[in-house]
Amino acid sequence: MLSSVSLSRKRKLSDPPHSSSEPKKLPLPAVASLYNLDPAATGPQQIELRRKVCLRVGRSKKNDIILTPADCSTYHCEIGVSYLNGKDIIYLKDLSSNGTFVNGLLVGKDNTCLIRSGDKISFAAECHYILKYQASFTLKSARRPGTGSFYDSYVIGELLGCGHYAQVKECVRRSTGESCAVKIFNPTRKDANWATSLNRELDILMKIDHPNIVRSYETFVEPYDANTMTTYLVLEKVNGGELFNRIVSKGKLRQNETKALMSQLMSGLKYLHSLDIAHRDLKPENILLDITLRSSDSDKQTGPWDAHELDVKVKIADFGLAKFIGATKFTDTLCGTPAYVAPEVLVNSTERKYTKTVDMWSVGVLIYVCLCGFPPFSEELGPPSMRQQIIEGKYAFYSPYWDEIEDSALDLISRLLVVDATKRLEVSKASKHVWFDEVRPKKELRETAFKGTRAVVTRGYSNPIMLAERVKSSLGDDTLARAYSADVDMA
Ligand code: ADP
């Protein structure tokens, strides 16, 4: 049977005792609850925490909350709610020599720590609770309101990935058992850029509905501590990891495979651009893959996938840097990851003007990377610097890496990696390019064939480094990105 302990009947530690003639005060509101993670355990299933009340927890009958496990101390800890600067904060003071643990970390005897929504508190080896704020204390998104707190509707699971602004974890919807992903924004990143980026992402995501774009279901904004809030963004869960990992594990992708993936990317991008939305941060880390495996050899594959795969769906993710392009048709924030960023974004100008075409440059870089396994612009290919290579549109199709690739692929790339953004192929035209059309007669193919030059790597000069090698030698794109963004910031 479920039992619940409320603090309403408990004394407020700071209050003097009431005289019998005084009118009874209404209980202070419950701010949060601790939920027992083991429904079969003997301890209370739910412990309500009320404003300005402190609860003592332990094995002794003198405690407010009595827990029976043998490894729980007589007086184990105190949990209280303080009202500070107009906010309710929940703290825990460890009184035990056996230790109280928050998210697996020991608080330590006589130490006090803040407890936040979603924190797991372990009073003993087999006695764990999770804290969540009451629904009335949470601010729900007005766009697609969920009911109550995130933890009312979802059970949180393993970490799926970490980004610049957030952690992404697995979660299961309690009502349906559906597996989803939740992006939990880092509440400590409170700088203006972070807040702007977050609101921008939420605004955009709630309006988007396309099979090649990660679906977003609902958002919850909940207190994290006295001064910060955390946003939970519930997303469609994508099971096959990042395109980045696929390239790294295979070295490079087959031509027909790249074609099939990129045409899905184009479809998602076409939808976004038709809504006047630029993604602005397209790179292999932001392209997720939803993979359905074959259950037998007789299962007919939907495309040129690996032998064990039935279907691979591209899902564009992470709109952290995306923005609606308004009437002025340009945005003025410097953004994106340098290796994939368009030249106009890097140009040293007080008025940076760029639009959806920045995505088409990134698509050019993406197709290039998929087909040969290394990026067209990098420090190793210099001099000049990667920045200068991008600004000048200086890249080449190195032999022998490009020898076997169809001319039409080179043609498409060279129509995308065009420094003059007004001359760059738009998504509607790029998606109709002959490279995507397997059945188009050879004659037409030849008409649009690539007329540029295939460069040869000069020995001892510029040697491309494969993405896979970069990762092995910890020369990940992030390392480059960081080094490079310093350069960009100074521009
Ligand atoms: P940030 O905006 O902070 O950079 P991302 O949106 O890029 O965060 O997410 C970080 C990582 O989490 C991704 O690279 C990916 O590995 C994983 N991830 C993100 N969204 C999902 C999802 N819907 N399903 C599965 N994994 C995801």
Provide a compact summary of the structure.
The chain has twelve helices and 22 strands. With about 500 residues, the chain is α+β, with helices and mostly antiparallel strands.
What report would you give on this structure?
The protein is of the alpha+beta class and 491 residues long. The chain has 3 domains: 30-136, Tumour Suppressor Smad4 (Sandwich); 139-235, Phosphorylase Kinase, domain 1 (2-Layer Sandwich), CATH 3.30.200.20; 243-323 and 331-490, Transferase(Phosphotransferase), domain 1 (Orthogonal Bundle), CATH 1.10.510. 23% of the residues lie in helices and 24% in strands. The protein has helices spanning 150-153, 192-205, 243-250, 255-274, 343-346, 357-372, 386-392, 407-416, 427-430, 442-447, 467-472, 477-490, and strands at residues 4-5, 30-36, 46-50, 54-58, 65-66, 77-84, 87-94, 101-102, 105-106, 112-115, 120-124, 127-133, 139-140, 154-162, 166-173, 179-185, 216-223, 229-236, 277-278, 287-293, 309-316, 323-324. The strands form 5 sheets. Strands 1-3-2-12-11-8-9 form a 7-stranded mixed β-sheet, with no helix packed on it. A 6-stranded antiparallel β-sheet has the order 13-17-18-16-15-14. A 5-stranded mixed β-sheet has the order 5-4-6-7-10, with no helix packed on it. A hairpin with a 2-residue loop joins β8 (101-102) and β9 (105-106). α4 (255-274) runs antiparallel to α6 and α6 (357-372) packs antiparallel against α8. The protein starts with a strand and ends with a helix. Residues 1-20, 136-147, 323-336, 443-447, 456-461 and 475-491 have low confidence and may be disordered. It binds adenosine-5'-diphosphate. The site of adenosine-5'-diphosphate has 22 residues, from β14, β15, β16 and β18.
